[in-house]
Each structure stands twice: as structure tokens, then as C-alpha cells.
Amino acid sequence: MAKPKVACLLAGDFEDSELKVPYDRLTGAGIQVDIIGGRAGEQLEGKRHEETALTDKSIDGVRPEDYDALLIPGGYSPDKLRADERFVEFVRRFDRLGKPIAAVCHGPQLLLTAGLVKGRAMTGWKTVQADLKAAGADVRDEPLVLDRNWITSRKPEDLGVFTEALLKSLR
Amino acid sequence: MAKPKVACLLAGDFEDSELKVPYDRLTGAGIQVDIIGGRAGEQLEGKRHEETALTDKSIDGVRPEDYDALLIPGGYSPDKLRADERFVEFVRRFDRLGKPIAAVCHGPQLLLTAGLVKGRAMTGWKTVQADLKAAGADVRDEPLVLDRNWITSRKPEDLGVFTEALLKSLR
């Protein structure tokens, strides 16, 4: 069986641990994680200045069909990504394929902008929960919410169960 | 007539110009602007590291009744403020009094979390527009939207008309 591949959508000012914890755990399990940004080879810095990441690919050079799951770390990164229709459309197409989407903290903002949250059970950062509720999502203030292909969590403290759920979805 | 007083709700990583431009214009016109944060005497820095602001008062020490208008600059500040129920409740009470509320860029996030946006004509930063729409607001992609006591704008480029509208509301 081919090695699973995960697409990670990232912009600057991401929540440092929300990249590092899943990234280290996934790559440690032999899974390829491509960091996908506005352009390839760009150095991105976390909002706490603890982590940096080099984008492997530009969003223009990837297709949802090439990946087995999608990872969306939080921080201010998702609000930057959703200002760019290329990322919103990538998420929309990924969901249409029914492949696992794991979004933590502010990550679900991308799902909201993609118009996908109505009626979905999910969670997110406490301030984002209000937006999701107002958009018609079935919001739960829990560490991990699973709904069909969606894996959502609230914050860095939830990263253990979040990452395990993402790993499990790839088995 | 007493000098008008404006309450400005602020946290760190605000959009620098969205504090500076209205603040300078209002204080230059003889209007008192109180910068209100989580606690008094706190130094806050803009997200572009161009501006700093010292909070005049803590949210615990102010009442909507003490002010003639409310100013909510954007950047990442509003998402931090709305994580704290004291700010959300202040906005809710301010709106109940029907006094002018001027929110720019991410500022309308506070109005959304306060549960006030349904059916209101308004605008905001492009990514926030999606949240507002999903929450039932009548969103317009225009530099300035006026609806009863609300004054909303999208971004730094709109600050001229935004600030003039706020000034006019105080006359």
C-alpha cells in the first residue's frame, strides 16, 4: 500500500503547536505531510515565534485527489487562507471527495467560508464556535467532534485526541 | 455642552492604522477617546508593530452610559476581545442604548458574537463578511455601511469615510 499523504494548508501566524504536534506525530508514523501555502518554498512563522515551516508546494500545484486527508492548523493562519479563494475551493473539493478533514481551533473558519458547516456536528476555538453556531452548525464544546469525514477540535490542549483521530482516519 | 466621549475597545495585535487614524482625527477634534482593555495601564502593540497604545481603563471600570459612541478597530484584537464575555456584554448593552457603534475590518466580529447582526445592513473585512452573511446579516461589500446606530467599514483604505461618519454621529 502506498504511503498515506496529508495536505496541510498553512499561512503565517499559525498556532505553533497546532502544526508541530500533528506534523511530528504523522511524519513519525511514516505519513507524508505536504505543507501547502500561497507559493512553494516560503518560510512561514508561527504566531508565538516558536515554530517555522517551509511550504513544500503552492496551492496552484496540488489537487485534492493527490491526498488522503487534509489538516488545517489554527491561529491566524486560517483567516488569511480563507481570504484567498484558491484555498476555499480546495477545501470545498476535498470535502466533496469525502476524504478526512481535520481542523483545529480557527481551522474551521475555512469550512465556514467554504459554505459547508450548516447542519454539521463540529467544534472549534471558542470565538469561532459563535460564528459556526450562527452559520447553522451543530456546535459542541468538546475536545473532539467526529462527523462523517470531519475531525474538529478546539485548542492546543485537544491536540492529543485530535491527532489520534486523524491518524485513525488514515488506517 | 460636555465634550463627547468615545469608548475604544482594544486588545493586542490590533490593525495599527485602524486605531491611529480614528484616534488622531477624533482627539484632534476635541473628542475624548478612552482606550479600554482587559485592565488599565496595559501597553498594547499593533500587529504591524507600528503603533502602541496604553489602555486608559479596564472594562470592569466603565459603563456604556458613560460614553457617546463606541469604536472597535480591527486586526486580531476583536477576536481576542470576544473571547472575554465582559466585552461582548459591553457591546450588547451599548447597542441596547442605541448609541453609535463604529466597527471596522474584524471589528464586526464582536457584534456577531453579541448576537446582534441578524437582519442588519453592514460590512466588514472580506473574510468576516462570510461569517456575517452566514449569521443572517445583510452584508454589503462597500467602504461604508450605515444602519441605524451602526457604522461599519471593511479595511484601512476605508478609514477616511469611516472616521467622518463616526465624527458626524457625535455632532
Task: Please characterize this protein's 3D structure.
Two copies of one chain form a homodimer. Chain A has a single domain (about 5-170), classed as 3-Layer(aba) Sandwich (Rossmann fold), CATH 3.40.50. Chain A contains six helices and eleven strands. Chain A has helices spanning about 15-30, 75-80, 85-95, 110-115, 125-135, 160-170; strands spanning about 5-10, 30-35, 45, 50-55, 55-60, 70, 100-105, 120, 140, 145, 150-155. Chain A has a seven-stranded mixed beta sheet, with helices on both faces. Chain A has a two-stranded antiparallel sheet with strand order 3-4. The first copy, chain A, has a two-stranded parallel ribbon with strand order 8-9. The first copy, chain A, is globular. In chain A, about 50% of the residues are buried. The mean pLDDT of chain A is about 95. The interface of A and B includes residues 76 and 130 of A.
Mean pLDDT of chain A: 97
CATH superfamily of chain A: Class I glutamine amidotransferase (GATase) domain
Helix content of chain A: 25-40%
Terminal-residue CA separation of chain A: 11 Å
**N-to-C SSE series of chain A?**
EHEEEEEHHEHEHEEEH
Which term fits the overall shape of chain A? globular
Question: What's a quick, concise take on this entry?
Answer:
2 copies of one chain form a homodimer. Chain A has helices at 16-28, 77-81, 85-96, 108-113, 126-134, 159-169, and strands at 5-9, 32-37, 43-45, 52-54, 57-58, 69-72, 101-104, 121-122, 138-139, 145-147, 150-153.
